[in-house]
């Protein structure tokens, strides 16, 4: 078998914010480090992040500090977050942002010359360090340039299909070059998964093709566990028209900068959807909400800036009640509230996106928006301080890791999550590698087996086309495990997923191994299916509504479920096993925070 | 230092300066696949610039009909030899009579336009076909651009600008002299005065919007906030700079029109309409 | 709403290839990338194409459409007549891998050669203070999504493979400009810009600015200012003299 082999201390899978940050940290701690990514360097989904990086730097509001950020994060996640992750995240995010400046990032500035911060849903104070509405691009480019400056090896357009393990933990990874289809194996005692999310299992999504859940699935196969998989965030504002751009993200900054949501009758309907949980901190009248933008001390936040799950559900209800726009969304209006110049300055890429793709001038007319699958809160269950999964040598950071965001992620907390936990994962991976470096090997049988599995779709003839299976999976998840869920629908979804698994086992692909997207998709589909199954199983099990999980048949939150996490693992027969696990107990001094700040 | 691990492809193959089809590129024989009229723009540029060159050469060598009291053609100003018609500028020396006084001063406006960042684009594309239009193959086998002599001289653009700014002062002075009548009395204005004024104004706009000017007034600074006045100047020049190409063409036309107007007056073909 | 469009797509690899004709459905509001995906899903499962975000933010789906370098995801089908044939070819300037996918490692090699960002120390309170007006110029260049369309259209390397060694291309000239204008950076890259990255090869014909999907003014705001900065250092006796007698502090 033709196989390229490499040896490293740390292999990072994924080159988004978390992966690159992990690689930089591992390298700086003396580990021989490689990054493996499915796309070209700098194209990772992180570039799509628009709003900013949440960090309690207190550049605009001296009252802000990590405790307030911690509280906002926990409340946004409906208290299901791992408290320790939320704590580390809130404490370390400001330093992670500042060090980006040492690597060349150029954030927008305050009048004092400090990093400017903007308002976002669920955050008590203006907290998001940003560059216009292209913060993700700035983040990825800064980390990319740092990675290049450090001379870290990057395997671009290279897909990992399998993690290799022995009895003591991780020994490496196996994959193929997309360009040539040739196989490659990395021997490494530490592997950091930073593969992002799962959005491509859904029909309407803001995620790119890379988001096939490979990291989730690889971890599961290697013996790790997934937590909180039932929680999928539907971003309230995706484009809805024209159909080909349906799902593309419309940044929350539109609302942070003054945009409001209206139904077809022209009403600001969000005032009708303020949940009791947030009533104390949300404006009751339009006047108060409008005053808040300039005077945050004496006014409460507009309901448009409630956490994403609340807003997405509200939009969904309005559309269902027949008060939607002609194309099945609601109106997001900033044109009538801010000057054209302000809009173009603060939201340049939104302006551009609507102008180019929908022929809508957002400085003159309202946008049509609706919910779009955006983020999975669930992911690999990790130790909060080291991001170590249950398999020794396996680490996970960023969207692929679970626990940090509980049942719902606040906007802006994703980019800070990547930096804080990317760094911690890289550090821990380097330390682990130095302990285990001489004691691993990659057995030939395991490599040959991985290669056989990868080539299987070429061996079958007359089988089904992978695109058709992907389409059916996306439709299934969209229809049956979407934003509002019921038991019968999810049972049906599980049946369909079982049928799809059989179809995937019989796929065949045309052409040869060189840059063959049909083959690549055929290899991604099993990942998408197993992750979809995890989501559906966990969602069926959790008989309550909370955050990114809304059950029509169990519309209320439930105190018992508030103390329970659902954990997915791989059963001996290869199926997905689900167990209940008590939520980690928050120490008293952190619990006090919820009393002291209101 | 590696950023992409060894992959057996993607290395640059330097030193194949033959202009022929490069190794490993997609085998597309057509020189371009554009379906629009990409040749129109370079064609217009060639026609207009050539017409100007022919006209201005004819006029510069003609050595006549460039002065019609109180107006002087911009081709001949500043007129610095004893052979000059009219009395608009100190006469420095006496040259051979077969050399037109326009020739001595040609180097400044010609130098400015020849090294101008906008005209460089225009003539490299339309005359040198390098490239004739975006994504349309150029015919040359070798290309080194402005990396070596003689084109290295383009880097002296700012000196041409300094000279041109001086000439702008002189041409403005000429335009102001247009407020005197044939006898030298102030209080006159004719169409010619307006023509010269408009020409001077456009020349100012053209030179001040220049990229070198933008650099000199503030572009070279890295901390605008420490130099508020220069930042303000840079902001203004930057606004003008956005229209540099437009000013380049308008001022070219205005120079030719101003000259033609003086020519027509001097030959007696027309008479100047006087406002007062 | 739906109509059958004629497409010609270059298919092949390094050993050769040609334009193949397809007839494919087009719906309202679609972009070229949608149509290419439809071809993949229905007629040519192994048609190679690179893409990621499909929203003009990542710069992956660069190709040449009717001979013009463009992002496929930002080229609306409504810009063509229903009877027009749309020709899609890979970027010409780079080696082809397969179909519409090219080997863009030239760009990554050049990126790695640029002297890295080198900041002045932080201030006493641990922050870097910069005014908005000081960061705005470099911010414009940091909008770059690295689609490499400017590199593709630049005739210096498009028509002269041999120049690739000496010339870094517009993307990296504006990267140099970005670093040179960066308020924190203390490295002088002007000599390197001229000697190592081939700034002099650029004859400012502005095709890079024409194709930039981000609307970055590469030539006017990046390359020309960089040329002027190089002139300060290399070709202008007055500024040279000024720097020698200390009249021109590095600002």
What does this protein look like?
Chain A: It comes from Blastococcus haudaquaticus. Chain A: This is Succinate dehydrogenase / fumarate reductase flavoprotein subunit. Chain A: The active site is at 308 (proton acceptor). The complex is a heterotrimer of chains A (598), B (276) and C (251). Chain A has 598 residues and is of the alpha/beta class. Among the domains of chain A are: 236-371, Succinate dehydrogenase/fumarate reductase flavoprotein, catalytic domain (Flavocytochrome C3, Chain A, domain 1, Alpha-Beta Complex), CATH 3.90.700; 456-563, Methane Monooxygenase Hydroxylase, Chain G, domain 1 (Up-down Bundle), CATH 1.20.58.100. Chain A contains 18 helices and 20 strands. The radius of gyration of chain A is 23 Å and the shape is globular. The mean pLDDT of chain A is 94. Chain B has one domain (40-266). Chain B has a two-stranded antiparallel sheet. In chain B, helix 1 packs parallel to helix 9 and helix 3 crosses helix 5 (157-177). With 251 residues, chain C is an alpha+beta fold. Chain C has helices at residues 32-42, 105-113, 132-142, 149-153, 155-158, 170-181, 190-195, 207-211, 218-234, 237-244, and strands spanning 3-13, 16-26, 62-65, 68-71, 85-89, 96-98, 101-102. In chain C, strands 2-1-5-3-4 form a five-stranded mixed β-sheet. In chain C, a hairpin with a 2-residue loop joins strand 6 (96-98) and strand 7. Chain C starts with a strand and ends in a 7-residue tail after the last helix. The mean pLDDT of chain C is 94. Classes of the chains: A alpha/beta (598), B mainly alpha (276), C alpha+beta (251). At the B-C interface, helix 4 and helix 7 of B face strand 2, helix 2, helix 5, helix 8 and helix 9 of C.
Any low-confidence stretches of chain A, pLDDT <50, length ≥5?
none
Main sheet: strand order of chain B: 1-2
In percent terms, what proportion of residues of chain B is strand? Answer: under 5%
Instruction: Count helical runs of chain A.
Output: 18
Described by the principal axes of the CA atoms, the overall outline of chain A is globular
Biggest pleated sheet of chain A: 5 strands, parallel
Terminal Cα span of chain A: 63 Å
* Classification by helices and strands of chain A: alpha/beta
Question: Helix proportion of residues of chain B, in percent?
Answer: 40-55%
CATH homolog superfamily of the domain at 236-371 in chain A: Succinate dehydrogenase/fumarate reductase flavoprotein, catalytic domain
Percent of residues of chain A in helical segments? Answer: 25-40%
DSSP summary, beta strand count of chain B: 2
Our measurement of the CA-to-CA distance between the termini of chain B, rounded to an integer number of angstroms, reads 76 Å
Any idea what the radius of gyration of chain B is? Answer: 24 Å
Mean pLDDT of chain B: 89
Unreliable spans of chain B: 1-20
Structural class of chain B: mainly alpha
- Described by the principal axes of the CA atoms, the overall outline of chain B is globular
């Amino acid at each position: 078998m033709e196989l390229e082999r490499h040896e490293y201390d740390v292999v990072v899978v994924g080159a988004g914010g978390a992966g690159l940050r992990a690689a930089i940290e591992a390298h700086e701690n003396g580990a021989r480090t490689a990054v493996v990514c499915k796309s070209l360097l700098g194209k990772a989904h992180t570039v799509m992040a628009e709003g900013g990086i949440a960090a309690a730097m207190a550049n605009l509001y001296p009252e802000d500090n990590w405790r307030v950020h911690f509280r906002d994060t926990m409340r946004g996640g409906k208290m299901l977050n791992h408290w320790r992750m939320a704590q580390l995240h809130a404490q370390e995010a400001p330093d992670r942002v500042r060090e980006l400046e040492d690597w060349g990032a150029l954030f927008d500035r305050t009048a004092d010359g400090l990093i400017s911060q903007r308002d976002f849903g669920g955050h008590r104070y203006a907290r998001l360090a940003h560059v216009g509405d292209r913060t993700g691009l700035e983040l990825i480019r800064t980390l990319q340039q740092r990675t290049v400056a450090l001379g870290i090896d990057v395997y671009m357009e290279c897909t990992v299909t399998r993690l290799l393990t022995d009895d003591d933990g991780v020994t490496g990874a196996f994959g193929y070059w997309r360009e040539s289809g040739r196989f490659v194996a990395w021997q490494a005692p530490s592997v950091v998964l930073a593969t992002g999310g799962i959005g491509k299992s859904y029909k309407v999504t803001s995620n790119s093709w890379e988001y096939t859940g490979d990291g989730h699935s690889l971890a599961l196969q290697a013996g790790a566990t997934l937590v909180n998989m039932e929680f999928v965030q539907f971003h309230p504002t995706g484009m809805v028209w024209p159909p080909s751009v349906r799902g593309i993200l419309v940044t929350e900054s539109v609302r942070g900068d003054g945009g409001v949501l209206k139904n077809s009758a022209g009403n600001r309907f969000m005032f009708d959807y303020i949940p009791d949980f947030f009533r104390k901190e949300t404006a009751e009248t339009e006047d108060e909400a409008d005053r808040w933008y300039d005077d945050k001390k004496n006014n409460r936040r507009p309901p448009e800036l409630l956490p994403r799950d609340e807003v997405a559900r509200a939009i969904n209800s309005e559309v269902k009640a027949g008060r939607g726009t002609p194309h099945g969304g609601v109106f997001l209006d900033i044109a009538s509230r801010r000057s054209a110049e302000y809009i173009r300055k603060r939201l340049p890429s939104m302006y551009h996106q609507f102008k180019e793709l929908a022929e809508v001038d957002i400085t003159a007319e309202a946008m049509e928006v609706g919910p779009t699958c955006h983020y999975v809160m669930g992911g690999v269950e990790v130790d909060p301080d080291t991001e170590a999964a249950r398999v020794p040598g396996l680490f996970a950071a960023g969207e692929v890791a679970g626990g940090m965001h509980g049942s719902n992620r606040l906007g802006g907390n994703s980019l800070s999550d990547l930096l804080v936990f990317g760094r911690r994962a890289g550090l821990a991976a380097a330390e682990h590698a130095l302990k285990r470096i001489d004691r691993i090997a990659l057995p030939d049988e395991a490599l040959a087996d991985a290669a056989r599995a990868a080539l299987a779709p070429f061996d079958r003839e007359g089988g089904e086309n992978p695109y058709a299976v992907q389409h059916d999976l996306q439709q299934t998840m969209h229809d049956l495990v979407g934003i509002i869920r019921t038991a019968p629908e999810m049972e049906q979804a599980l049946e369909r997923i079982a049928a799809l698994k059989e179809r995937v086992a019989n796929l065949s692909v045309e052409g040869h191994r060189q840059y063959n997207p049909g083959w690549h998709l055929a290899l991604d589909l099993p990942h998408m299916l197993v992750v979809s199954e995890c989501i559906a199983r966990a969602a069926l099990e959790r008989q309550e509504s909370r955050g990114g999980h809304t059950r029509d048949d169990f519309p209320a939150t439930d105190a018992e479920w508030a103390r329970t996490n659902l954990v997915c693992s791989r059963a001996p027969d290869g199926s997905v096993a689900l167990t209940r696990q008590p939520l980690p107990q928050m120490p008293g001094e952190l619990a006090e925070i919820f009393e002291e700040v209101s | 230092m590696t950023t992409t691990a060894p992959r057996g492809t993607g290395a640059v193959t330097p030193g194949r300066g033959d202009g022929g089809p490069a190794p490993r590129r997609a085998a597309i024989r057509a020189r371009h696949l554009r379906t629009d009229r990409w040749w129109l723009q370079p064609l217009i540029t060639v026609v207009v610039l050539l017409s100007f060159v022919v006209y201005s050469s004819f006029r510069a060598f003609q050595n006549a009909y460039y002065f019609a009291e109180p107006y002087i053609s911009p081709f001949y100003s500043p007129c610095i030899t004893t052979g000059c018609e009219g009395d608009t500028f100190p006469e420095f020396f006496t040259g051979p009579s077969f050399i037109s006084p326009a020739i001595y001063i040609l180097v400044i406006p010609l130098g400015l336009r020849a090294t101008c960042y906008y005209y460089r684009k225009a003539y490299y594309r339309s005359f040198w076909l390098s490239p004739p239009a975006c994504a349309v193959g150029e015919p040359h086998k070798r290309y080194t651009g402005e990396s070596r002599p003689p084109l290295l001289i383009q880097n002296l653009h700012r000196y041409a600008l300094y000279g041109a700014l001086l000439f702008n002062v002189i041409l403005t002075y000429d335009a102001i002299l247009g407020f005197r009548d044939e006898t030298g009395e102030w209080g006159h204005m004719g169409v010619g005065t307006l023509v010269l004024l408009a020409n001077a104004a456009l020349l100012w706009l053209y030179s001040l919007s220049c990229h070198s000017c933008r650099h000199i007034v503030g572009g070279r600074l890295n901390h605008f906030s420490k130099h508020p006045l220069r930042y303000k100047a840079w902001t203004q020049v930057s606004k003008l700079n956005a229209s540099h190409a437009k000013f380049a063409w308008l001022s070219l036309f205005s120079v030719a029109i101003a000259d033609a107007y003086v020519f027509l007056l001097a030959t007696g073909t027309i008479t100047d309409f006087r406002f007062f | 709403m739906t109509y059958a469009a004629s497409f010609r797509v270059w298919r092949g690899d390094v050993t050769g290839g040609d334009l193949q004709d397809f007839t494919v459905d087009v719906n309202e509001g679609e972009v070229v990338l949608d149509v290419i995906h439809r071809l993949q899903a229905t007629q040519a499962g192994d048609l190679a194409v690179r893409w990621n975000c499909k929203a003009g933010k990542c710069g992956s789906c660069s190709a040449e459409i009717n001979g013009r370098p463009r992002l496929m995801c930002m080229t609306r089908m409504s810009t063509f007549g229903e009877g027009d044939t749309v020709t899609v070819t890979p970027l010409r300037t780079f080696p082809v891998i397969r179909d519409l996918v090219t080997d863009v490692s030239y760009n990554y090699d050049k990126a790695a050669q640029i002297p890295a960002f080198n900041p002045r120390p932080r201030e006493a309170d641990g922050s870097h203070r910069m005014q908005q007006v000081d960061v705005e110029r470099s911010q414009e260049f940091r909008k770059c999504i690295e689609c490499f369309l400017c590199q593709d259209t630049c005739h210096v390397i498009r028509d002269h493979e041999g120049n690739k060694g000496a010339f870094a291309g517009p993307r990296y000239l504006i990267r140099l400009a970005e670093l040179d204008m960066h308020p924190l950076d203390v490295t002088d890259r002007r000599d390197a810009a001229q000697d190592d990255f081939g700034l002099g090869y650029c004859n400012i014909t502005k095709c890079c600015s024409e194709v930039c999907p981000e609307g970055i003014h590469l030539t006017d705001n990046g390359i020309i200012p960089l040329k002027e900065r190089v002139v300060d250092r290399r070709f202008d006796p007055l500024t040279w003299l000024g720097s020698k007698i200390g009249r021109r502090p590095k600002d």
